[in-house]
Design goal:
The protein contains 18 helices and 9 strands. The chain is mainly alpha-helical. α1 crosses α4 (about 90-105) and α14 (about 330-355) packs parallel to α16. The protein has 2 domains: about 1-195, Fumarase C, Chain B, domain 1 (Orthogonal Bundle); about 205-490, Up-down Bundle (Fumarase C, Chain A, domain 2), CATH 1.20.200.10.
Length: about 500
């Protein structure tokens, strides 16, 4: 059981809860803050103080006052009208993360909701009742309004969920799980949807995949180094200390570790003086991607523990302040950085693939073919890698530089952070396939060189990967090999 406080959630805990299905529970102290905040909202309603989102309309309607008897209907209307998401649903892992992050944000005690609402979010999470949330429709400011409205609909039994392997009306899942009906009260609808949990959840899931892939990319690159008799002098610690970037230093250290004991690598002057950049500059390029990923991790962990709805309630309700914490610009930038970082891992990987298959660039058999000419070997695998890399260049265009006014120009600057997070995830899927292709080619090259001469660590990975992708002894449908290898990488088996 992982305890949520509203301020201490880490990406490692997200990983355990979202993917390993560890249960989450609210700390006693955080629930006390929730109770106090809700009591402040109850008093505001009773005293008929005019507060945005409690007894006023929303967006351009913020100047429209709402009668006290209609404050509950106001919240329900908000959720129904804002549930305008379209397209394919987010993966269930993202839906789980959204439940978790929304509960954690409410536990900060600035949102005015009842403890029962937090409990409903955590019950959905722990009972694996996952709201069906369309991916498209958020501008990434005023929060992820459309996606989070679909989450809110599921909580009250009006949306859809994935439950026990089936997509069904949430009312059926709620009844099956033995949960009581749930009705929104003052401010609760707004508190559920005025936040950045769609982009942050998609970003967190994408980051966890990207981090794993970045480590895998180094091991795969090490195997390529062996297949091409690469020069290990380029990884000498002194070179990287001389520049000073810690991530570059760390990458070089891992490359030295992976290749320790290899009889397939060379030193400068043995076969050639220098390698091409895609080999020689692995620490510099991969290290720079790690710099961006470290930035992304920092911003995600701040946002996961942030109060991002509006208005926020302070001083036991004496001060209710309208602001803009729902604006997703910090995460939008982070997602665009992650897109570029992972796209570059695929870019340099594709260049290494070319060196493995191009007979003009190495002494390996043309296209790693067992019978060059009769058998095409890995020729078209490089085509696929090039296609994926090209697609990534389009997806890597920054979403955060765009903005379209909304709500009659009241909301006149938005972040498009959710688009950025979705594109980041797509880039990671493409990059995983590119690196799967490099792994397949690197294994084949290692066989030509002599598997028995590989470093112990790369040899271990070679043996595991050969259980997934057999040696190329003749042409076959390589699409299946690529997809199987990519799935293996996503499962994180390569360790």
């Amino acid at each position: 059981m992982i305890e949520l406080t509203g301020s201490t959630l880490t990406l490692e805990q997200v990983k355990v809860i979202v993917f390993e299905k560890e249960h989450a529970a609210a700390s006693a102290g955080s629930m006390e803050r929730v109770k106090e905040s809700h009591e402040a909202v109850r008093k505001i309603v009773e005293e008929e103080r005019v507060i945005y989102g409690i007894n006023t309309g929303f967006g351009k309607f913020s100047d429209v006052l709402i009668n006290q008897k209609d404050v509950k209907a106001l919240q329900l209307n908000l959720i129904r009208s804002h549930a305008c998401g379209v397209g394919e649903p987010f993966p269930e892992s993202v839906s789980r993360a959204m439940l978790l992050l929304r509960a954690n944000a409410l536990l900060k005690g600035f949102s005015g909701v009842r403890p029962e609402l937090v409990e409903r979010l955590l019950t959905f999470l722990n009972e694996e009742i996952h709201p069906v949330i369309p991916q498209q429709g958020s501008l990434g400011a005023s929060g992820d309004l459309a996606p989070l409205s679909h989450l809110a609909l599921a909580l009250i039994g009006e949306g859809e969920v994935f439950y026990k392997g089936k997509r069904m009306p949430s009312s059926e899942a709620i009844e099956s799980a033995g949960l009581p009906p749930f009705h929104l009260e003052a401010k609760e609808g707004l508190a559920l949807i005025n936040g950045t949990q769609a982009m942050t959840s998609m970003g967190a899931v994408a980051y966890l995949e990207a981090e794993q892939l970045a480590f895998q990319s180094e091991m795969i690159a090490a195997m390529t180094m062996e297949g091409l008799n690469g020069i290990t002098d380029a990884f000498d610690e002194r070179i990287h200390q001389a520049r000073g970037y810690q991530q570059q230093i760390d990458t070089a250290a891992r490359m030295r570790d992976y290749l320790a004991g290899s009889r397939l690598t060379t030193v400068q002057g043995e076969l050639r003086v220098q390698d091409a950049y895609s080999l020689r500059c692995i620490p510099q390029v991969h290290g720079a991607s790690w710099q961006a990923l470290d930035y992304v991790k920092e911003k995600l962990e701040i946002e996961m523990n942030a109060a991002t709805d509006n208005p926020l309630i302070f001083d036991e309700g004496e001060k209710v302040i309208s602001g803009g914490n729902f604006h997703g610009q910090p995460i939008a930038f982070a997602m665009d950085f992650m897109k570029i970082a992972v796209a570059e891992l695929a870019n340099i990987s594709e260049r290494r693939i070319e060196r493995l298959v191009n007979p003009q660039l190495s002494d390996l058999p043309a296209f790693l073919s067992p019978e060059p000419g009769l058998q095409s070997g890995a020729m078209i695998m490089q085509y696929s890698a090039a296609s994926l890399v090209s697609e990534n260049k389009t997806l890597a265009h920054p979403a955060s530089v765009d903005s379209i006014p909304s709500s009659a120009n009241q909301e006149d600057h938005v972040s498009m952070g959710t688009i950025g997070s979705r594109h980041a995830w797509q880039i990671i899927q493409n990059a995983t396939r590119v690196l799967a292709i490099e792994l397949i080619c690197a294994m084949q090259a290692a066989e030509f060189r002599g598997v028995e001469k590989m470093a112990s660590k790369t040899r271990k990975i070679y043996e595991k990967a050969r259980e997934i992708v057999p040696s190329i002894t003749k042409d076959r449908v390589f699409s299946k090999d690529i997809e199987n290898c990519a799935a293996w990488l996503k499962e994180g088996i390569m360790k």
